[in-house]
Design goal:
Length: about 180
């Protein structure tokens, strides 16, 4: 998480990062003024969290608590999830697949499948290795992103064009449908 820099008439020297726990704000970390980007780990899957900050200065003054920021962590699932975004600019396209490991263990050896007419040509593939056969294609992981740790996401994709214009569709992750 991150927050904007606070200012006052003395000099902001740090922040109290607070979490709403059981209806009360609790300081979970005190950081220097330049440490406005913090990672919070050990969160429970499928749970809602709220955080806020209080700035303090060299004279001991404190600000009011910031407006809280909140989010809900992803729930654990039996299989990783995937989302697809296809940007079209006829006759071209770019397809990006986001693989999110929502399981409790690292996923390794994943495969993205998709439909793409044999008449379509593909350009560069990123973060994976593409192969094609007729009207279908697959992307397997590049060496550096074969394993995706729990709670981590990876992006893969490719660009191309088709005449007649038909962008890729029917994306799957390990045989299960991806969402759009």
């Amino acid at each position: 998480m991150s927050w904007g820099e606070a200012t006052d008439n003395v000099q902001v020297t740090g922040y109290h990062l607070q979490q709403l726990v059981g209806g009360s704000w609790t300081t979970i970390r005190t950081v220097a003024a330049h440490q406005r980007f913090q990672t919070v780990s050990g969160l429970t899957p499928g749970s809602a969290y709220s955080f806020a900050v209080i700035a303090f200065d060299a004279a001991g003054n404190t600000s009011v608590r910031s407006d809280p920021g909140g989010f809900t962590t992803l729930a654990l699932t039996a299989t990783p999830a995937c989302r697809v975004q296809v940007i079209t600019f006829s006759p071209g396209f770019q397809a990006t697949v986001t693989i999110v490991n929502t399981t409790s263990a690292a996923t390794n050896g994943w495969t993205i499948g998709f439909d793409l007419p044999a008449t379509a040509s593909t350009g560069g593939t990123f973060n994976g290795v593409m192969s094609r056969s007729g009207g279908s294609g697959t992307i397997t992981p590049a060496v550096y992103n074969a394993a995706i740790a729990p709670g981590v996401q990876s992006f893969v994709g490719f660009s191309g064009s088709a005449a007649p214009f038909t962008p890729p569709s029917g994306f799957t992750l390990n045989g299960l449908p991806c969402t759009g």
